[in-house]
């Protein structure tokens, strides 16, 4: 398997044609000295940027008008002389120069907008990948490979996106395939075909010319729809995820990596040095935030990449690389316990992207499941229908995973082999949404619940660590009828009435009417004991408002089905704990991270302070007693007790990130 460099930089260089003296401060020795001091061992360098200019010469394409020498060639030569890998970046979906010269290559939105944006908007214009523009991209890619005589470490293609284009090429080809250009569904299906065909063409041509080169296609998100039909056209995955932007945030990367790591390819996480997002010149991410983002990558079995943007004059910012170096120095020290590590997981969360019901890049049901499981210190992956579910003891279907015939068969087989399921709200219904696909659920659907809100009281056997009282469920649930042998783990009482314009009470919701027990339950467990069902969308609800009782109810259900998890601890819910395995040497590594994102500004979360934890008790399930238990990278021995299949130890202090090695 491909071994990715662990300490990478993605060096953006999108430089407008109006900027003078491009590369005027270039100094090869200063460039590599800066990278060495920052402990960087790979850097993505630009052949062609979103403005459409190339940065190498000679060329048949358009050199940046203010560049007088082969900047890319000088950068690659300098990096290779220092033993630093230098994959080459080529823009695809955005190219302002091509957009201006060839408007016939632009995507046309269903509303008739060329390039997805008004000509007066300072935004990248989108090129159609089903136009002759793709020939242009391929020719330029071939030229850059030839420019380096095939000695290319990698090819990094950006903006592999295709919208619901209705340009003349797309309309013609949709009709040829029997698709309706007036149908959004058909336009999306065709766009996926176009995107995948683009990857295939560029991958096969590039690998034919440079068989050993790494090849990656970036769309800003490694998810089900972006990868499922093109896995063979990636040598690895790079998970772009800058938490300081609204499209990603701090929930995106942990979901994405827990899905990507099930796809059988090496992967790295990509954050940025920027305070906000790409192109934020002269800004600096808080060191604590950059540490957390990189150490979280290590804890999930990934390599690290930090995004930067080179100033047009061609000199790296020394303070930026001082910041990167302080983090990468620590990453380098931790690498022996992280390189080649495989994360341990015993819970599978079905990715709602694979169910076709996702709402945006960070779906709230996915994110709610993520938060509950992270805060409970559980070991879990996000999976699709192709994953090997037998690796997992519990399968979670969050809120909106319908079961078509094929997926229902997968779930039935998983249960028959001893698996356990927790499902919520509409998960488990047929695609039509009118009945549960499997009798194993132990309930029958009776439509949407009559009450909103519901007031829920947990049965004693759920042991939900909640007061013995009703707790409000803010979102409308489903009315379900328990079957024979199905146990009710939480009952429902309704309000006096649902809030409406002509009858309402108080500021928010009508209180519970003790005389109105509902005819439907909130939580059930089937007769076989292997399916626990929540009638409310608890995961999306937790993501939106984080009611502690939602999480307590879910944790209680999980304890019923998984009484002996891999990790138990007295660490606070703000601590993240992951477990990885290395085979050579044979060891288990427990990662504990304690960084707390805060919403200090209005636009995004950030991390400034590292708050230490002391005397954290951890218990790890393991088959045999390890010969040695120690802290890494310090090597300090740790006292541990092995009893009844579990290893127990106390970590005296955790400052940000601590690894405990069971060897």
Outline:
This protein is of the alpha/beta class. The chain is globular, with a radius of gyration of 27 Å. The mean pLDDT is 96.
Any descriptors?
about 675 residues, 15 helices, eight-stranded parallel sheet, alpha/beta, ten-stranded mixed sheet
Written account of the structure:
There is one protein chain. With 663 residues, the chain is an alpha/beta fold. Helix content is 26%, strand content 23%. The chain has 15 helices and 29 strands. Strands 10, 11, 12, 13, 15, 16, 18, 19, 20 and 21 form a ten-stranded mixed beta sheet that branches. The chain has an eight-stranded parallel beta sheet with strand order 5-4-3-2-1-8-7-6. Strands 9-23-24-29-26 form a five-stranded antiparallel beta sheet, covered by helices on one side. β23 (576-582) and β24 form a beta hairpin. α1 packs across α2 and α14 packs across α15 (548-561). The longest helix has 26 residues, at 184-209. It is globular, with a radius of gyration of 27 Å. The mean pLDDT is 96.
